[in-house]
Amino acid sequence: MDEGSLIAARDQLLETAVQFFSADPDVVGIFLGGSLAAGSADAYSDIDLRVVVAAERHGHYVEQRREVPKQWPGFLFNEWVPGAQHCVSHFRPFGKIDIFYYDVAALAPSPWYRLPIKTLHDPHGLVANLLERSAVLPFTVSEDDLDFSISKGLAAAHEAYRRALRGELFYALSLLDELRQHIMHADDWLHDRTPETAVVAKFDMRGSPAVLAALKASYCPCETDAVVKALRVLAETYRAQIIGLHDKFGLLRPLATDLEAVDVV
Predict the structure, then answer these.
(1) pTM score, whole prediction
(2) Tens of pLDDT, residues 47-69
(3) Which domains, ranges and CATH numbers included, belong to the chain?
């Protein structure tokens, strides 16, 4: 898998997809997101494609989201979530395209459209208008976002401890991964990083040194004592973050009970 071949295959897949969708007059917009649009892609980056469809055809494309990529050269397999409006398709030699289908009638400005976007098909100027109206919208962190993340992070810590003590080590290790995700979210929030930062610099490059060190130290063998030790490394980091989040955002949830919950492990 030399990098030149991977990039050439990805370029060909993107061209095939754009030609397919743009031939349908009811496809009123196609744009690219992710690292390809941001100019930070490498040979292993996938294609994040967004297809805007007329309301009367949107249901058709969502229903056929698993069938459409099968028509293109090099198709290997799909991965999907039941009821979702997107599908991820894998292609030879090692490519991946994630296609979201948007109903033009439901398309509305959002700060998420401030992320790097490359317009590939916009016959009526709808994508350009959407991006213009979205440019002034700020990214905000809601109380619900913080409340949800802290509760899920604490729950992951508790369940990892419970499963480790039971000897259910594979499950415990997966829960450490869940806790790591909430630690990374907290680090971004505490340092005012927006999703725009995440597109350009992956967490390995943007994370705080102390948090990165704790995350690296938390990877461990599949043994009860090692899992519990790793959990305590993460819990110590998360405890400090919880205090920081309460102080920065003035959260309504009680700090005392959050600290009591994290101190259990």
Answers:
(1) 0.89
(2) 999 999 999 999 999 999 999 99
(3) 3-134 (3.30.460.10), 143-263 (1.20.120.330)
